[in-house]
Amino acid sequence: MAEQANPIISIRGLTKTYKGGHQALKGIDLDIQQGEILALLGPNGAGKTTLISTICGLVKPSTGSVTVGGYDIVTDYRKTRHLIGLVPQELTLGAFDLVADTVRFSRGLFGLPPNEEKIDEILTDLSLMDKKDAMVNRLSGGMKRRVLIAKALAHEPRVLFLDEPTAGVDVELRKDMWKLVEKLRQSGVTIILTTHYIEEAEEIADRVGVISDGKLLVIDEKSNLMDTLGKKQLMVDLRTPITQLPSQLSEFDLVLSMDGHRLTYTFDTQGEQTGITALLQAVSEAGLGLKDLNTSQSSLEDIFVNLVHKEQ
User: Fold this and answer.
1) What digits encode the pLDDT tens for the residues 144-177?
2) Pick from 39-48, 170-179, 259-268, 285-294: least confident
3) Do 53 and 127 sit in the same domain of this protein?
4) Is residue 198 one of the residues assigned to a domain?
5) Containing domain of residue 37, as a range?
6) Best-predicted range by mean pLDDT among 219-233, 268-282, 285-299?
7) Which residue from 18, 101, 162, 261 has the least number of CB within 10 angstroms?
8) Is residue 3 part of a domain?
């Protein structure tokens, strides 16, 4: 994604220290471009929710600055809050409200005029039209999650935050949500999501940031992250099992499987030489018969775990 002159969100030197001394954010610098999908990964307590809450104006920063659409979150709070939609982790809904009324009320809170067509469009996109006149307390957990998203979209925000949006929801809702995310992005909405479901970040995000212990360890386009930090593995399947590695293979970083049928060789995709040609020649010289060759690339999950592990 090409850098733009004016990011929709700009964060500089952001810190947050709570009463009692816990430092939840430690000098975060981050620019988020309009129309991108950014996934923030990190373990519990890493600072993801604090970061989102600070940008949304729910938590006051200790030091640093945040602008949304060019407006400061502290001095221009009303303007920045109007630009933002937030879907929190917790299900915070009035039990006896009707679904449509909940969404209408949220729109009205931001001073927007009534627009039934827009309300119906949002409810349709979230498969909620048949629940339009249902009471919230009659809905399943997944349906309540959909209502939260509808509320967040009611005032037509330019930035949408999804804090652990698919935690504990069914696969159908997850698929609906990602379809909606793509539709919103096409209309120019910027989406920032925190997630534990790394495979989803891998599937839909343009960029991925990894947060641990209040620090942003890395932020990059997903493809660059995979190329730069990812490792590839070559699996060499042997026709006849072996019990130990022949001396000809001692110079290679190999792992022999328990059944003796497979050699696994890890190599750096960014290195000048992978060493694969030399390895295969050495396998031949050792008199081992090849049955099959396969390669696999490390996933975002592997990269995430390795980054956090190095930091600890």
Assistant:
1) 888 898 999 999 999 999 988 776 666 777 777 7
2) 170-179
3) yes
4) yes
5) 9-227
6) 285-299
7) 18
8) no
- Is residue 15 within 8 Å of residue 63, measured between CB atoms? yes
Residues comprising the chain, all counted = 312
Instruction: Give a yes or no: residue 94 inside a domain.
Output: yes
Q: Are 154 and 252 members of one domain?
A: no
Query: What percent of the chain has pLDDT above 70?
Result: 87
* The pair of three-digit structure tokens given for residue 311, joined into one six-digit string: 């930091």
The verdict on 245 and 210 lying in the same domain is no
CA distance 174 to 181: 10
How far, in Å, CA of 310 to CA of 312, rounded? 6
pLDDT of residue 125: 86
| Cα–Cα distance list, 252 to 183, 197, 245, 270, 284 (Å) | 48, 34, 10, 18, 14
Examine the pLDDT at 3 and tell me if it is beyond 60: no
Q: What is the per-residue DSSP string for the chain?
A: ----SS-SEEEEEEEEE-TTS-EEEEEEEEEE-TT-EEEEE--TTSSHHHHHHHHTTSS--SEEEEEETTEETTTTHHHHHHHEEEE-SS----TTSBHHHHHHHHHHHTTPPP-HHHHHHHHHHTT-GGGTTSBGGGS-HHHHHHHHHHHHHTT--SEEEEESTTTT--HHHHHHHHHHHHHHHHTT-EEEEEES-HHHHHHH-SEEEEEETTEEEEEEEHHHHHHHH-EEEEEEEESS--SS--GGGTTS-EEE-TTS-EEEEEEETTSS---HHHHHHHHHHTTPPEEEEEEEEPPHHHHHHHHHHHH-
Query: How far is it, in rounded angstroms, from Cα 119 to Cα 263?
Result: 58
Asked if residue 189 and residue 56 are part of one domain, the reply reads yes
Domain count, the chain: 2
Domain shared by 80 and 130, yes or no: yes
